[in-house]
Amino acid sequence: MKVYRKSLFIQFLLFIVFFLMGGNVILTHYFRESLPWLPYVLLGILVFFGVVGFILYRKEDPRISIITEQEVKTIRYLLYGYFFVYILQMVLSNVAAIDKDLLNIGTGILLMGIALYGAWIQYKVLRVK
């Protein structure tokens, strides 16, 4: 399948943002009271990546890369898995019977792992093709 390189690069930036969001789950768990400004830093980073992504997307770049159907499916399943785990973390964080340390650290690590694997796939596609 032929895809514009700039679209693949935007997806790469998206996986980097997802990695930061997974790290934010862990950092917010430990530093919520002592660093109340931490969510605003994440918001600033998200806005920065959004602006950079928009600027790069609007830039003219006619280069096309080839991506296989297997890579597309893998990226799709990674995105589904990421959002499932993220929503599950938000829902389960309100359940009193669940240990918050285990939940936040486990889901944060899982989210960061999914994002890292997605970024690695995007990097391979951008580097090779």
Word description of this protein:
The model has no long low-confidence stretch (mean pLDDT 90). With 129 residues, this protein is mostly helical. Helix 1 runs antiparallel to helix 2, helix 1 packs antiparallel against helix 4 and helix 3 runs antiparallel to helix 4. The chain has one domain. The chain is built from four helices and two strands, in the order E-H-H-E-H-H. The N and C termini lie close together (11 Å). Helix content is 78%, strand content 5%. Strands 1-2 form a two-stranded antiparallel sheet. It is globular and about 50 Å long. Keywords: Membrane, Transmembrane, Transmembrane helix. This is DUF2178 domain-containing protein. It comes from Peloplasma aerotolerans.
